[in-house]
Amino acid sequence: MKSFTVTIQRCSECSGLVDDRRISAGGIILQKWTDGKTNNSAINVSSHTRCFLVKCPYCLKNIWFNKLEIHSSRSLLFGEPEDFDKSRPFSKPKVQDYADELAAGRVSADKEENFRHVMWWVGNDRRRDIKKKKPMLDSEIENLQILSKVCEDPNKYQRLKLAEIKRELGLFDEASRLLIEHCNNKKTDEYRVFLQGLVSKQDCTVRGIPFT
Ligand SMILES: [Zn+2]
What we know:
By secondary structure, the protein is of the alpha+beta class. Helix content is 37%, strand content 11%.
């Protein structure tokens, strides 16, 4: 059995108690999307080296969870942490909150790529498994354009990531060129062919991958 630790921190703006109970569950990956997000939010956050932006549920300010003062932390196997009943789970920031943090220069250079990747996921959350697809906001398009430059000299893995970014931007010819070369790994190549199918249909929406 896995031990699920919950950490309660104190908001730097209003001193309210905020916790990470919604990301501590971990679990098996059952669903993966073309932008790299999975159903396992703990993994999604750990790829962000636990340095992640949240919204305080009381004062609604954007706060960096790992930089807050720790109030209590405990594995739920040993009971709830101190003041668990007085704490609220953090709220999720929206795309504009991520854009605001970047514009304010509060994201360090070494964290920027991961941060932009999470911003990509947050934007796509408005399109996952929803029939009526919402178009990208200008800030999402700009984010993907910058993220694509990071992958300009792609290795095999980044090549597919870059192709996915181009596809979501509607740059189907560029995406198609990146998907011509076969991948050595059978599973990765299966994914490459899947992306090719979406590009040929001129589909620019994030999609669930029908295999894991
Ligand atoms: Zn607060």
